[in-house]
Amino acid sequence: MSRLQSPLPVLNPADFASGQEIRWCPGCGNYSILAQMKKAFVALGRLREKVVIVSGIGCSSRLPYYMNTYGFHSIHGRAPALATGLKIARSGLSVWVITGDGDGLSIGGNHLIHAIRRNLDINIVLFNNRIYGLTKGQYSPTSPLGKVTKSSPMGSIENPIHPLSIAIGCEATFVARSIDTHVKHLSMVLERAARHDGTSFIEVYQNCVVFNDGAWDYAKEQDQKADNIIELEHGKPLIFGKNRDKGIRLHGMEPEVVQLGKGIAEDDLLFHNENCPEPSLAYLLSRMRHEDGFPEPIGVFHCVEKPRYDRKINEQIEQAIQKQGVGNLEELFRSGDTWTVD
Question: Are residues 319 and 205 in contact, defined by beta-carbon separation less than 8 angstroms?
Fold first, then answer.
């Protein structure tokens, strides 16, 4: 190392804390997600000046204030659009989009799906608490059918969106799910997402203690979660249960829960392949719901490589410059048809 070079600073999670007063309700699941993001950045060796966090509107979207990185608190649903422009202009930055089930899937749904399909190198983390928390308890796009809220006093009559199904349908190259209180798992998923070369989409089951407390108890409580969630492992059979004696196998094109033993072995089960180019298996897993009698998968559903939008567009810009030279904005502005208004 030359005398002019300085060693990279050794950071810890506290170095990523901004010092701003955190204004989330006590017990909110957002605290855990914030903590795991700090740990993940340390594990990844991220420098604070190389990280940008872009958010929309909602409780989740306060997160940039609490991170000692660059950040944008943008407008409702438009965080993916800002993140797209940022990544194209500053390709060396680690860009993260923080959104919620309302912000990202309602007003921001159009922006979200196009950011995913373009496959630029950003990370989208969607906090899903199945409710509008910041605006005080209206039903959201992920609220279950029949959910009674302030805006649906007789029960919601809208079919809920399944975020991972949307992402996979939009040709996402990295799709994962975790849970706010499953801290080691969440940290692992965030690290995997950050290392992915392309758009990563992570859904996090997050509890709103005030307006939708207990929405994910079946997937979080110690006495329930073993029978209600299944941790995906690449190349491993889908096994779950307190005694790991239950599994998922395919019956034709449909998944079914089976009991191991009694003629059913692990080799009869569905084996997970997160790198399969065809996303049908990942989509099938994204449709397994607790209310339909299935354990809900967590972990990495899909991880493949495809051309990146930000890389390709910058390659086109370089080709245009080599062919036509560096442009002149003033000349471009005054070129073509112009009008003078008296």
Answer: no
Backbone angles phi, psi at 278, to 5 degrees: -80, 120
Question: Is there a domain that residue 340 lies in?
Answer: no
For residue 78, the 8-state DSSP code is -
Q: How many CB atoms lie within 10 A of CB 13?
A: 16
- Are 66 and 136 in the same domain? yes
pTM: 0.93
Question: Is 122 a member of any domain?
Answer: yes
Give 122's strand partners. 95
Domain of 256?
Answer: 237-271
Beta-carbon contacts of 335 under 8 Å, excluding residues fewer than 6 positions away, are none
- pLDDT single digits (tens) 91-129: 999 999 999 999 999 999 999 999 999 999 999 999 999
Q: How far is CA 314 from CA 112, 225, 309, 318, 319, in A?
A: 21, 46, 9, 6, 9
Which residue type sits at 204? V
